[in-house]
Amino acid sequence: MPTxxxxxxAALSLTLxxxxxxxxxxxxxxxxxxxxVAGLAQHLSRTAHTITPVHPGWDGARRPAWLTGIDDLALAxxxxxxxxxxxxxxxxxxxxxxxxxxxxxxxxxxxxIAGLVLIDAVGVQVETEPITDFFALDARxxxxxxxxxxxxxxxxxxxxxAEELARRQANMTTMRIxxxxxxxxxPTLLDRLxxxxxxxxxxxxxxxxxxxxxxxxxxxxxxxxxxxxxxxKAGHLPQIEQPDATFALIDAHLRRSGDPSDQR
Length: 264
What we know:
Helix 3 crosses helix 4. The protein starts with a helix and ends in an 8-residue tail after the last helix.
């Protein structure tokens, strides 16, 4: 990384929540914001040291003008891990956060990352399984594509406070800047995943219509050590619809992917 780029990442002020003790686990939210992984981070903090950022540009967190891509976020978080001397890190990413996790792993020259969990991640191009254009959907369409039980989770925008609508619109504006062109993927990422040899668990809701389980299977197959687990009765956010099943699989992977020689 060039010195001037390193200085930019070092100067970036990140909004982080931390809890628990033990092995470090970086929890990365998707387009829906930090609330979508809050329950997951709380669960993991019982046995691990969880670090949960708010991505720059989400929920009011400052995004510098130069931060315009998912690769920028990946490098920023790698710099944070290295700056803090963290190793044996498990990176858990939901949706867009899963894409960030994958981009981090292919760039992890310091060996900070020891395992990955990607939950219904975007980020790669699978010719036979196109990613649904989230920006083209209305609120009902988003619910239908995202949830196994859309009636339970659908929120009519007309009933939301103005402040909440503004927050959501600002988040979507940021997501367009970072992931809108090319839409929700890096055309080269799938071919680069084979170099990632750390244990990589891909969790997928069986009813996800944003990115299908078949998309998840192609994603998992591209990793050097990838494995797909499909979660019944869940959509794009299984950590919310089926938390018990999701947490159990992540807990097992947390144990499997740890470095037994690490003596923090």
